[in-house]
Amino acid sequence: MAIVEVRQVSRFFLSGEARIKALDNVDLDIEKGEFTAMVGPSGSGKTTLLNQIGGLDHPDTGTITIEGRSITDLDRKSLTELRLWKIGFVFQEYNLIPVLSAQENVEYVMMLQRVSAKERQLRAKQALAEVGLASMEHRRPMELSGGQQQRVAVARAIVSRPAIVLADEPTANLDSKTGASLLDLMHQLNDQHRITFLFSTHDPMVMERANRVVHLKDGRIAREERKPAMGNLSVSVNSDAESGTA
Asked: Among the four residues 176, 199, 230, 235, which has the most C-beta atoms within 10 Å?
């Protein structure tokens, strides 16, 4: 069973008097252990789709399930609980709490999960060590570089052991060297622990490292590329959205 199943999802927005279709009957499955990038020009729908999967927004039509449970009809409390236990988030702007230390930021989700203080401290320290910040657990965000802050965000996303980590333009505010280092880290976490990652991105480095690249165009999945287990060749699958036969 896929971790994420998106079925016939559409989303509309109003711009003045115009009704804009941000997503157009999208179907998408994400399997456990995938390292997938959603790419496309601005306005293609990739961030909108990521927000739908993360339960940060609701589709106008269609359904989304996480580990077999539909999230489209959940009330706010149930959706908050599902996000807390099943989804890790890595945002472009890091979204760390400035008055908390790196370790406290990583502990925050576990505190909401009511994990004991001893257990969450242990797991937070282990997660920070795993992302290369073992000696910086007491520093606050303002005392860390952009790349270090994003590593804290990754540690926070993985420490609660979610079904999937959603990353919205995680390298956008980083220089190329720092971005590459962060991506190598996430790929390592994916390889070693089978943590599932789904990215929304413009960054070619993310596309190069992804095992699967989903191209969006005008709110539809235009094509996909999957890299075989060995070698660097990609297999491209075109859909009607890009071939012009729709």
From this structure: 199
